[in-house]
Amino acid sequence: MRLTIYFLSLTLCLPSVSFADRIKDLVDVAGVRSNQLVGYGLVAGLSGTGDGKDLRVTGQSLTSLLSGLGVSIDGPVSEFDLGQNLINLAQQNATQPLQTDNLASVMVTAEIPPFAKPGQRIDVNVSTVGTAESLRGGSLVLTELYGIDGQVYAVAQGALTVTGISETAAGSSVEIGVPTSGRIPNGAIVERLIETPFETADHFVLNVRDADFTTTNSITKAINSTYGPGLATPLDAVSIAVVAPSDLAQKVAFISEIENMDIDPGEPTARVVINSRTGTAVINRSVKVSAAAVSHGTISVRVDAFNEVSQPGQPGAITGAFAPGETVGVTNAEITVEEPLSNMFVFESGIELQDIVDAVNQVGATPSALIAILEALKRSGSLKAELVVL
Hints:
With about 400 residues, the chain is α+β, with helices and mostly antiparallel strands.
């Protein structure tokens, strides 16, 4: 089987060429970030696929919900209205858990984007926390979504979109996707503004997504050469401090211009990423190999079993199926060891990616063989790259 190696871009095998990238594709503005919200709620309207009596918290949640709406579940019963027997029956039923086959306790999560204003809508994800088998056809009851500070920042409600299907009949079952989780597009309304220092700060910080001194230096030079020296100051391999205008409108326009500037980022660290489960290998163009000779082969052991029958009998006596004694089965085994011929290929010092690919493909290495070769090269010190095995 011929090994397939995935490339990061179509130009990986070409000579090193410098490509310009926009600053907005390389950095984030400090403080301009999304926030996670979470809440607990109930999904109603399920067709018998809810929690049932197995999860008491679902019944308790329903009781609390109805009590908040002014509905009494187990109020006092007057003896004037009912006989003593009916009173006892009502009290007995009041102590039993509510039927919640059509209800499910769920966790509701959402991500509120930066600068989101009250009244805007965001998507929510809904997942079961109990024994519900499916959320298909259900609707989320009004649920408060909390931030890390315990404040309510959004409320969610609406019909769920569930892509998973689960069906059971005559002892057989089939499940496609995950029916116990769903999504409500635009299902939550933002209720509270998240304060940011963007409006009042006298400077802003650009954080490079992949730490690199060369990239931060290039961004600093590009800003200072365009707007004047000293406006941008590199802090480390990640952060660059930029003096901001005092007027808010000018600040927005200034950041917009900086985001759309083109720079030449630093070359990424030489890295080889291997997924051992799928056999996928990704090698970036910075990877080089020093002089090394590689030979890879596998030894196969084959065991063949032969079942034979041993007939009883002694020399000069009656033999065959009617001979006195017991007929027994005997198993004989034949073991064969095969070691195929394996060509050795040589890596010259400082070879490029294309040479590595050609050499590995030349011997017909499988994905598992590639992993073994790269790990051996790394251990020997010939692979000048970071080896990441997932």
